[in-house]
Amino acid sequence: GQNIDQPTEMTATEGAIVQINCTYQTSGFNGLFWYQQHAGEAPTFLSYNVLDGLEEKGRFSSFLSRSKGYSYLLLKELQMKDSASYLCAVRDRGYGQNFVFGPGTRLSVLP
Amino acid sequence: DAGVTQSPTHLIKTRGQQVTLRCSPISGHKSVSWYQQVLGQGPQFIFQYYEKEERGRGNFPDRFSARQFPNYSSELNVNALLLGDSALYLCASNSGQSGNQPQHFGDGTRLSIL
After folding, report:
1. How are beta strands B5-7 and B19-24 bridged, if at all?
2. Which residues in B lie closer than 8 A to residue A4 (C-beta atoms)?
3. What pLDDT, in 10s, does the model give residues B45-101?
4. How far away is chain B from the Cα of A15, in angstroms, using its nearest Cα?
5. Which chain B residues have a beta carbon less than 8 Å from that of A60?
6. I need a labelling partner for A111 at 20 to 30 A (CA). Which of A16, A54, B20, B114 fits?
7. In this structure, are residues A52 and A66 in contact, taking their beta carbons and an 8 Å threshold?
8. Which residues of chain A carry a pLDDT beneath 70?
9. Burial level of B24, CB count in 10 A (0-12/13-18/19+)?
């Protein structure tokens, strides 16, 4: 079956660093994506990992371990505007190359 | 360039009615996917279309159907609406089926069933 787990909620302070974890069990694997979704808005793409290791994009980094079925999103120098839901999604190897999304982690950044 | 566009933005229906939601992908994108997102949860995959053919179907009843047109736009139809169909319906497009191409989402259609 397909299962992706993320913490439901996290809270952090402006200027701090926060790590959002994601574990997955899917029938196939063709990449892991992180999306940011502000309340009432569409998800927007943040990062992509298909090989093990760390990918860095400015204040955001994402890590993948395929053997452990594990990824994390690291947000540095947190800003108030980073308050949002963060969605972990796995692209499987099915015929449709479907995206399986996790439940999302709601991050609140406090002053 | 225009992003993924969806219409209508909001819709209110009653139980038993039928609804059609529309999506125009980013220019040049041939793959369109539909997702249902219930408040507080992640998007759930409904359908994927590529070059006008269905390439994937999620665990949704037959009341849900979709199609893709020659210009790659797409429609999602839901018949015999139930209260549980109230959700944000998201359309996403990307250029193809392989590679590191993320899906680009539209702003969604918020469907409320009374």
Report:
1. antiparallel
2. 42
3. 999 998 889 988 888 999 999 999 999 999 999 999 999 999 999 999 988 656 567
4. 26
5. none
6. A54
7. yes
8. 1, 93-97
9. buried
